[in-house]
Amino acid sequence: MAKPESKESMVAKEIFSIHHDLFIKASLEEVYEAITLPKHLNNWWPLKSSGTPEIGAIYNLNFTSNYDWYGKVISCKVNESFYIEMTKSDENWNSTIFGFDIEEINGLVRLKFKHINWPECNDEFRQSSFCWAMLLNGLKKYVEKGEIIPFDKRE
Over 70: is that where the pLDDT of 10 sits? Predict the structure, then answer.
């Protein structure tokens, strides 16, 4: 009979995830474009980006010359969802997947964000969770009010 796993070994195998939900006063199309098109991404997240919202496309997410990251679109449904798997980034982010599910509820768009497959609940994971919350608030302000937070002021 196999020996049961210890609590320590089970914790070591745990995968960590970040989840945030928010409501945005906008159309599905406006929110979908803001989370997929580089001309909009650049107004709330990276300094500059490139890519097209289609499965298999490569997105470049450039934050600085030292943080010039890449990811591959693994899921893309117009006005419904968009997910990227990180392929070249910080070692903590490599192989993580982030993305968005959106739906219209009572005239608002509910955005369900997740960033999954983190191997550790380390400093980078905790800081990224905080930053995502702040950035998603910036996304909401951008889509609802056209407010652009300068790159050097984004979390």
Answer: no
